[in-house]
Amino acid sequence: MAIAVMLGLGAWQLDRMNQKQQRLASIAQKEHLGIIPLAELDEHKDIRDLKVGFSGQVDTQRVFLLDNQINHGRVGYQVLAPIDTNQGTILANFGWLQGNPQRSVLPVFELPQLLTEFTGYIRMPALNPFVSETANKTSSFPMVIQQTDIETLSLFAGKTLLPYTVMIDTPDDPQFIQHFTPVVMSPEKHFAYAFQWFGLATAAVVITFVVFFKQREKS
Questions:
Q1: What is the radius of gyration, based on Cα positions, of the chain?
Q2: What is the pLDDT of residues 101-115, one digit of tens each?
Q3: Residues pairing with 171 in the sheet
């Protein structure tokens, strides 16, 4: 059973490696497209990782702070806020902000009120099955959230949010750290993990045969 589990984990890591390789190839291809106007987004079948440009107004009254975000060993938040555009309301991620050592004290920041032109990368948020709720419904804004559940955040914001987020890369705001990292673990690491699992499975097979033959000799 242990050998089967280890072989399965190795195969899973190889599958993840292939997924990451395909994702990186897709990102490289989409980079050549340049900035896509938000109004032309429907012309693209796979919108994930596309760089889009749009104009809109930031809703600074309904800000969400995505909790437990680590940056170089420091704990903080991802700052998200709705941007109203002609194509709908986008939940924009303005970047990472360091948290306060006292969890009850939220960091102080300002979102752009006059800026109306934005560019950024489209992300498709995934729900964490181990997180039971998005946020406390009695919380006020800025609201600390545990995951980016678009449907639930639409209820909190009182407006329908488009089914994706945009990682803003403008403006160059010193308040936030803005970085686009769609692939956190490289394909090479997945291959290394797969090699380790297959190696452990091979070792387990060898040990099993050695023990088996020793027991036969004794009998």
A1: 23
A2: 888 889 888 888 777
A3: none
